[in-house]
Amino acid sequence: MERETSHTKRILLLGAILVLWGGAIAARLFYLQVIEHETYRQRASRQQERTRPIPAQRGKILDREGRELAVNVASQSLVINPVRISEMPGAPSAAASILARYAGSTTDGLLERIDSHTKFGSGYLRLKKDLDDEEYARLRSLQPHYEYIGLEESARRLYPKGALASQVVGVTGFVEYEIDDPKNPGEKQTITVEEGAVGIERSFDRQLRGTEGSRWTRQDVRQKVLASKEKPPQHGQDLMLTVDARVQYAAEKALAEAVKKANGDSGTAVARDPHNGQVL
Asked: What is the model's pTM?
């Protein structure tokens, strides 16, 4: 009788353990599939989906005869994938240490940028434009060892006439802005934009800049593209000015000689078309 009672107790104990074990699994599944469903869905989406900008080509600035005063030339940019970096143990610190000098930042400063983009699920961060040949070669040699390092072709602004009419044409620069993050309402993300700093480049920045496009892709675990969608950029408009590069050259040369002869510090000269008042 005692043996039967002991055996029954063991069976009941085992049954209780199995019930508790099953209940714990069910509770865990409920937590993951119901309570944390959206969190894991967003995480999976960030890992599988990528949206990269397609830069718009900035419009040219031409003189009245079509001579190029400001154009774009191909260059190489250093980019990284913050989300991919965050998935690799120790990679954020290593990436910040290796790439900080290219980004013009400290290791801690770059690590903060990587963490910020990772938080927003951003798979794209441009660290530097206009890599020189030595930088490009060095980064190419690092790529096989660090899969998160990317090199992409971009464009940089070039002024073929040098300083000629520079006070009119102006220059561009890169500015960082905080904007609302479309994936995380109430959050902000930082973007870097090339825009006109002075002169025509600034006054007509909106027309020259255009609107960047984007390319969305969904990939599997092997990074094979399963689906993609592209929104083409709207390139900036070319601007033809009333100025004449030859007149500008002659005027600047004559002005420099006059300032030197008068032992002055600076001078101003304006040439206008007598028929319509246009600045030449």
From this structure: 0.63
